[in-house]
Amino acid sequence: MNSNEIDIHKELKKYFGFSQFKGLQEQVIKSILNQQNTFVIMPTGGGKSLCYQLPALIQEGTAIVVSPLIALMKNQVDAIRSLSSENGVAHVLNSSLTKTEIAQVKKDITSGLTKLLYVAPESLTKEEYVNFLKNVTISFVAIDEAHCISEWGHDFRPEYRNLKHIIKQLGDVPIIGLTATATPKVQEDILKNLDMSDATTFKASFNRPNLYYEVRTKTKNIESDIIRFIKQHKGKSGIIYCLSRKKVEAIAEVLQVNGISAVPYHAGLDAKTRAKHQDMFLMEDVDVVVATIAFGMGIDKPDVRFVIHHDIPKSLESYYQETGRAGRDGGEGHCLAYYSYKDVEKLEKFMSGKPVAEQEIGFALLQEVVAYAETSMSRRRFLLHYFGEEFDDVNGDGADMDDNIRNPKTKVEAIDQVVQLLEVVRDTKHLYKSKEVVFTLIGRVNAVIKAHRTDTQSFFGCGSDHDEKYWMALLRQVLVAGFLSKDIETYGIVKITKKGLDFIKNRESFMMSEDHEYNESEDEAIVSASKSTGTADELLMGMLRDLRKKVAKKLGVPPFVVFQDPSLEDMALKYPVSQEELINIHGVGEGKAKKYGKEFLELISRYVQDNDIIRPEDLVVKSTGVNSVNKLYIIQNIDRKLSLDDIASAKGINMDTLIKEMEQIVYSGTKLNIKYWIDDMLDDDQQEEIHDYFMESESDNIENALKEFDGDYDIDELRLMRIKFISEVAN
After folding, report:
1. Fewer CB near the terminus (10 Å): N or C of the chain?
2. CA distance 193 to 165
3. Enclosing H/E stretch for 693
4. Considering only CA atoms, which of 704, 724, 730 is closest in space to residue 715?
């Protein structure tokens, strides 16, 4: 049947009630009606299903649709049946059917009633089904979620590998592969494994201009950060993704305690609960679902307004799929990911038990995620480049919807370094992946470099004036600029392109943006308020600093004794105006609030009034109370003068953690009398010496104190003395 003979617009209206096609749909349908092998790459929500549903409904014979997910099949069958008066128009063939049901399916296919038959790849391997299908008219075979064929896809299924042989047995039928993931590597794999290198490929743009991409450093205060974010988006629907079930439960609990309507969703819940939570989300009975990646397959909720990644995903594809669930209706969609290298190391550890080939792939995919999180160039451009699409980050659609573009990093001229890098890739004869290229530049030897004797070459170490981080960042930016490419066959090997060779000849400016440094500065006083990701109010911050100085002077103590910097930062972010709100500021407890709070509260209230500030009155993050038990135990047993070693071992924690807990207690304004313990360690003169130091010091930083005493005291002695000092002087 030829596409020219059919008025597909009329058919579209008749079956689906739409008056026009979306994006590439029309071209794809014409290709299928002309019996051509067709390959469709379309992001989730782009209307892939219609591409095979409409041609199946208007052609003779039955179309076979291979799909990996039973739930999705069921949804689609129900949807097609609702378009026709005949139930038999669409069927599922899988292991859940009874003999009678199977007989009915076969009868409907033979009579020509069934237009769409949905099967799982496992069912197609059954001989009886294959023999039956050989003898009926098949219009075409559609393979949905075709990336399942590729080990490089985010959802590899070995049973997909047999499909080619089975389809061959059905005779000469056109194949339609459909996927929502399209890295060049996966694409190549699909075409090769389905033996359809002649297919006409249709690739829709992967750009979702309404989505805003942002990455934040993951700190210890991530929960309050998430709560703050959700409360700023009050009443809107969102999804939070976590990697483990345990984390899903914990986050859902913290949100509920803080007055946010949230439910957990993961594979460990029974089917009934899962279905209930999913429905609650769809029906808007709850605002937020906290989920593992099990959630979202086939969920079509158009108005999800934010997707938060509590943990970084395993691949950029998964990230794209998951963020793609936001803003399907074209409205607002905020995609926020929290990143810390610790999470990456965790994922690497998980991989270590897998076969080597799988490990390699896993590492390569993970490195791409790291590169995305750390990059300082346009995230949208980076993401689209990964999917083999060019993007103009100045004038492209949605170019400014990105934290890197809105808060640009400083750029430096790197023309000489780019030439250096390109020459090293050229002169090492395209042997190496990024890591080895960088090692060659900085002059670091590993087994691979040794084997190829690169360390004996004159250019080895030619870029040692910059570090590994710098070169990695530059390499990524040069890849995206198209001067280098990653080889598809041997994934990861870096090659120079024609564009790169031209650059060496005709050097022109290359502005490199400096990458993000994601290290939680190990401030070993109380963990600062995660260097507050919300930008604190600089003007107020200055006024609070001045007031602190004044109060400290009046009392004759160093400023940090009154409030530490993180506490002021938190005040400049949250604008507390009552005693109760002040107690919930980072590092301020009841004691401090009573002692010093009055003047600070008056200043903030005046400031809020004068400048018409809208306060985020929401920021009292209640915890689910694990640490508070510890705190109480520590305070009670120090009052009883119990040995600190015994307190630590009774709670199953080490000395370092115990000291941290004690620091938190005294910095929030509660007294701890540990003189009994210190007396056994230091005599009165030594104690006096350290006390005087803190009295005169500008800061309570331990590093500075260690330098000052130059080995006279160890770190624990100084930390315990600082606790005693704060307890006596400040509280």
Report:
1. N
2. 10
3. helix 684-696
4. 704
Kindly report, residue by residue over 4-63, the tens digit of the pLDDT: 567 889 988 888 888 888 889 999 999 999 999 999 998 876 788 899 999 999 999 999
Q: The domain that contains 451 carries what CATH number?
A: 1.10.10.10
Strand 411-413 with 304-309, pairing: unpaired
Cα separations (Å) of 52 from 33, 169, 272, 501, 522?
Answer: 10, 21, 32, 44, 55
* Residues 575, 682 within the same domain: no
DSSP H or E run through 143: strand 138-143
Q: What angle do CA 447, 450, 456 make, to 5 degrees?
A: 155
CA atoms of 552 and 546, how far apart (whole Å): 10
| pLDDT tens for each residue of 475-517 | 888 887 889 988 766 667 889 999 999 999 989 888 887 776 6
| CA distance to 25, 594, 717, 720, per residue, from 681 (Å) | 78, 33, 8, 10
Same domain flag for 326 and 235:
yes
Domain count, the chain: 5
Q: Residue with structure tokens 């009633």? A: 113
- Contact between 186 and 153 under an 8 Å Cβ cutoff? The reply is yes
Total length of the chain: 731
Q: How far is CA 311 from CA 36, 308, 517, in A?
A: 42, 9, 18
Residue 531 maps to a domain: no
User: Would you give the end-to-end CA distance of the chain in angstroms?
Assistant: 87
Residue 23 phi, psi (nearest 5): 55, -120
Residues 6+ apart with CB under 8 A from 627: 661
pLDDT for position 622: 55
Positions in the chain whose pLDDT score sits under 70: 1-5, 45, 71, 153-154, 182, 294-300, 488-491, 516-536, 614, 616-629, 731
Whether 619 is covered by a domain: the verdict is no
Whole-number pLDDT of residue 282: 83
DSSP state of 728: I
pLDDT computed for residue 708 by the predictor: 87
Residue 545 phi/psi, 5-degree rounding, is -60, -45
CATH number at residue 606: 1.10.150.80
Phi-psi region of 145 (alpha: psi -120 to 50; beta: other; left: phi over 0): left
How many Å is the maximal CA-CA distance in the chain?
Answer: 101
